[in-house]
């Protein structure tokens, strides 16, 4: 089954390395890192990718714990990445708060690895690019 998303829009900001991004009525910004000549005030594209996986992980774990009625009180995710020419490595660490059994923690870790974005990142990506008319 093919799933399509609403278009994410991006626009350059005159006199700046930052860009304005939007999806429907939501707005946010991105910029180059300070080491690359940006202001350092907005997340860079890699930060946005990493934060998307963090958010998806937390939301998925919370929804599943609620459905299973696990005593989950909080979820914290820390993610760092490094990359070389062949691999983009993400190291994700999850902290679960609440009176959870080891079996429940193991189940929530399994679910974290099945969050939709985690699954998407394991797929083959195809990107087409064309000039808009």
UniProtKB/TrEMBL annotation:
* Entry coiled-coil feature ranges: none
User: Superkingdom, according to UniProt?
Assistant: Bacteria
Pfam families noted in UniProt: OsmC
Q: Which Gene3D superfamilies match?
A: 3.30.300.20
Show which residues constitute the signal peptide.
none
| SUPFAM superfamilies registered for this protein in UniProt | OsmC-like (SSF82784)
Protein name in UniProt: OsmC family protein
> What species is this protein from?
Ramlibacter alkalitolerans
């Amino acid at each position: 089954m093919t799933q399509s998303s609403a278009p994410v829009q991006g626009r350059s900001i005159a006199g700046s390395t930052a860009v304005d991004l939007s999806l429907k009525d939501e707005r946010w910004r991105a910029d180059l890192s300070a080491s690359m000549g940006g202001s350092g005030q907005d997340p860079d594209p890699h930060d946005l990718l990493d934060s998307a996986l963090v958010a998806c992980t937390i939301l998925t774990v919370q929804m599943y714990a609620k459905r299973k009625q696990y005593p989950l009180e909080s979820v914290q995710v820390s993610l760092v990445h490094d990359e070389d020419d062949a691999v983009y490595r993400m190291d994700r660490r999850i902290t679960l708060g609440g009176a959870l059994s080891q079996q429940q923690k193991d189940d929530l870790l399994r679910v974290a690895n099945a969050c939709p974005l985690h699954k998407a990142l394991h797929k083959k990506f195809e990107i087409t690019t064309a000039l808009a008319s």
